Histidine kinase (Paenibacillus beijingensis), 364 residues
Amino acid sequence: MPDDIRPEQLLGIVFDYTAQIASECRLGRVLSLLADMGCEMIAAERCKIWLIDKRSRELYTIGQSHFEQTRIPHGSGIVGYAVATGEIVVTDHAKAAPRRNAQNDRRTTCQPTKGMIIIPFSGADGQPLGAFQAINKRTPSGTFSKADASLLSLAASYAGKSLESVILQEEIAATQQEILYIMGQVGETGNHVRRVAEYSYLLALGLGLPKGDAERIKVISPMHDIGKAAIPDAVLNKPGKLTDEEYRIMQRHAEIGYKMLISSQRELMRTAALVAYQHHEKWDGTGYPQRLKGEDIHLYARITAVADVFDALGSDRVYKRAWEMDQILSLFHSERGKHFDPDVVDALMKQLQPVLEIRSLYQD
């Protein structure tokens, strides 16, 4: 055991972090907790958990947001070597290590790296899953010991068991989300529903909603136009202006979507039904189909409305060209408190930079 930590301290660290990890299902958060646990267990400046992406043949680590990803080629550099061979690496001279990759260093570190421990770990089936990396000992001696490596090996073994189930659950959730995207794509173009989902998530956070609510609206919002599945293609894809009768037909998609979803026994889908029904309502009561006003409109529908219109205005459609960003923002300023909930418009302006990053990431 390291001479810089007492047994009772170590036990407290392990109990505290394993309790938090056991109740967590978000991969980014689990990786963050594991890394923090490793740092405290062996007094390291930084720890990272690397995972194998079998499809791209890369190693990656992520932050609490999936957009904070760092990737390196599988088998490349010291970490890649350790994962590929299953060998534990302990060094106090990382910069002089024979398998060091300077390009990987630039991608993965923001501080000078001296000492390093890398412990590969596997899943329950014995197949390599990733590696636990500790960087720079945070004590006067500045060097990692054999005891440090032993403790980190225990943490790595626990990481393998913990991460396997979390990764599986994330894959299931991602598959379910993909199904919703595909279903919601009816009558839409390119990545519209994916962008609306991500915008809605950011707007919810901008409003100060709990992350759980933001996650729920991210799942729900892609279903807002599901009722368009019952609208004739001649109306849905008409390049010119709709006639009054065609517009009435188009408006029916809100009620149709509601009826498609409301019979579900799942609360999430029943809320999605309300969003489908209400996302064309307006803050001042002039929308459709119920002419609801203000907070009588479900908050998720108010958020989805802003996300949907923002993306629609900035996208090419059969009946129009994409607007310039200054035109889009001008419309939201003028319709604040009229068409749109003023608080949601304010959240859009607050979150505009990450919204634009999503727009760039998921182009048509």
Notes: The chain has two domains: 7-169, 186-361. Residues 67 and 358 are 10 Å apart (CA to CA). The radius of gyration is 25 Å.
